[in-house]
Design goal:
It comes from [Candida] jaroonii. This is Cys-Gly metallodipeptidase Dug1p. There is one protein chain. The protein has 479 residues and is of the alpha+beta class. The chain has 14 helices and 18 strands. It has helices spanning 3-15, 17-28, 40-56, 140-156, 179-186, 235-238, 245-254, 277-282, 290-297, 307-315, 356-373, 398-411, 427-434, 459-477; strands at residues 60-65, 84-89, 97-103, 123-125, 130-132, 163-169, 196-199, 211-216, 218-227, 233-234, 319-326, 337-338, 341-350, 379-388, 391-392, 416-419, 437-440, 456-458. The protein is globular and about 80 Å long. The site of one manganese (II) ion has 5 residues, from loops.
Length: 479
């Protein structure tokens, strides 16, 4: 591809904008929530949708790889994991091969949570030129972005400058169950000859400056189940006579972290890699402010008063979040119930050099010890639900250099190099199993509200994001 071709590609992407919006509209309409077993058919439907699109776009070797039965804990013991969709475009040995990964599942959403519009109807706010809908930025927008790039090439009668291998999964939001094994298996088969991996599943740090990302935190998700009476009971009839599971659970959960965000479990801080002066300096030049953080959270609840400390706590220190309690009364009003069984949920974001197995032991032992100190008549089962490793790589390679050129070309500025506080469990697996580098090339902005209400993707990020992905392939093909 010449410079002229790239101009043509960008013009074609602009021209196909209505088609691209339609594609994202169709994708968002499918309620592919991986965490909700009752919606599993929708997740499968989303994989069928991808197969249909990939087929129309001329991809080859399209397969829906089954991943078998979902491991417990599950409601339905026979529930099948959604398939991984694999496809390739081109197999020219003289070209580089880029594996693109994305996920087609989304977080739950319902209008009652406070959305301004139906979360599963992509809604174009024409005044702000913003697309609203669940998955718009995480991760259906970027996944459609890759397909859009191929469509633009097809329409121009242009060959892709690289061979593309797609790996789209439907279980990312639920811990990428089953995918590690598939990647290990396909490393020498379907994924043979892959030169590099590009993942578009994160966001700019702020709202103005594009970024390239070279690190992610890991996540270990835990449950503490406390079991007491055989059924929910009347607190007037039984209160004072029996041990209450909620009382135990709150004690344990309050022993995990304090209100300044400090993790109270002993032994975790000792595993965190020390901050070197060189690393400390990296934070100076990053374009970010506490004001932007406040804008993104819609509050003034920052625990830090300067950008460097705030970023360090997002990128390079662990954090512990309490997420919820299954089985507890959480509705409006005043229900006088004693919940019989409650399951507390929390997760820890991990960083170098936390050892996964050691972390799990420390955490579970801590929960059991605190429970023991309560002298409770109830029983406890604290366990890990799923985990994904942290990932930090070297951003000085051909793939990052190509992405930097592409970003500069489309947005007119040099990108910042960032790490993320979030997790994409499979990133390290790709690096280890395929023995290639991985690049995170984001499409959306820091205020897109992934996982939140009113998730959005700015139109300029969708369209320029497609151009950036396309230009990246072009620049990478030449290195
Ligand atoms: N796209 C996110 C990963 C992400 C989050 C990148 C925040 C950058 C910033 C991904 O879809 C996600 O939500 N991952 C989960 C993983 C978990 C369920 C194992 C996460 O981070 O909570
Ligand atoms: Mn995502
Ligand atoms: Mn997500």
């Amino acid at each position: 591809m010449s410079q002229l071709d790239l101009d043509k590609l960008f013009a074609k992407i602009e021209e196909l904008k209505p088609k691209f919006i339609e594609r994202l509209t169709d994708a968002v309409a499918i309620k592919s929530v991986s965490g909700d077993e009752s919606l599993r058919p929708e997740v499968v439907k989303m994989s069928d949708f991808l197969v249909k699109e990939l087929t129309t776009l001329g991809f080859k070797d399209i397969v829906q790889k089954p991943l078998g039965t979902q491991p417990p804990p599950v409601v339905n013991p026979d529930i099948q994991l959604p398939p991984v969709v694999l496809a390739r475009s081109g197999s020219d040995p003289s070209k580089k091969t880029v594996l693109i990964y994305g996920h087609y599942d989304v977080q739950p959403a319902s209008i009652e949570d406070g959305w301004n519009t139906d979360p599963f109807v992509l809604t174009h706010d024409k005044v702000k030129d913003i697309l609203y809908g669940r998955g718009s930025t995480d991760d259906k927008g970027p996944v459609m972005g890759w397909l859009n790039v191929v469509e633009a090439h097809n329409e121009l009668g242009l060959e892709l400058p690289v061979n593309l291998v797609c790996c789209f999964e439907g279980m990312e939001e639920s811990g990428s169950l089953g995918l590690d094994d598939l990647i290990a298996k396909e490393a020498s088969d379907y994924f043979k000859g892959v030169d590099t991996v590009c993942i578009s599943d994160n966001y700019w740090l702020g709202t103005k400056k594009p970024v390239l990302t070279y690190g992610l935190r890991g996540v270990h998700y835990y449950e503490i189940a406390i079991k007491g009476p055989g059924a929910d009971l009347h607190s007037g009839v039984f209160g004072g006579m029996i041990g209450e599971p909620m009382t135990d659970l709150i004690k344990i959960m309050s022993s995990l972290v304090d209100s300044q965000g400090k993790i109270l479990i002993k032994g975790i801080a000792d595993m965190v890699a020390p901050l070197t002066p060189e690393e400390d300096k990296l934070y100076d030049t990053i374009d970010f402010s506490i004001d932007e953080l406040n804008a993104a959270t819609g509050s003034k609840t920052s625990l830090h008063d300067n950008k460097k400390d705030a970023l360090k706590h997002r990128w390079r220190y662990p954090s512990l979040s309490l997420h919820g309690v299954e089985g507890a009364f959480s509705g409006v009003g005043a229900k006088t119930v004693i919940p019989a069984k409650v399951i507390g949920k929390f997760s820890i974001r991990t960083v170098p050099n936390i050892e996964p197995a050691k972390l799990d032991k420390i955490v579970i032992d801590h929960c059991n010890e605190v429970f023991k100190s309560l002298n409770s008549v109830n029983s406890i089962d604290a366990h890990l639900l799923h985990d994904g490793n942290y990932w930090v790589s070297d951003p000085y390679n051909d793939s990052f250099a190509s992405a930097a050129k592409a970003t500069k070309h489309v947005w007119g500025v040099e990108p910042d190099y960032t790490r993320e506080g979030g997790s994409i469990p499979i990133t390290l697996t790709f690096e280890n199993e395929l023995k290639t580098g991985v690049l995170l090339l984001p499409m959306g902005r820091g205020d897109d509200g992934a996982h939140s209400i009113n998730e959005k993707l700015d139109m300029s990020n969708y369209i320029n994001g497609c151009k950036t992905l396309g230009a990246y392939l072009h620049y990478y093909s030449k290195v």
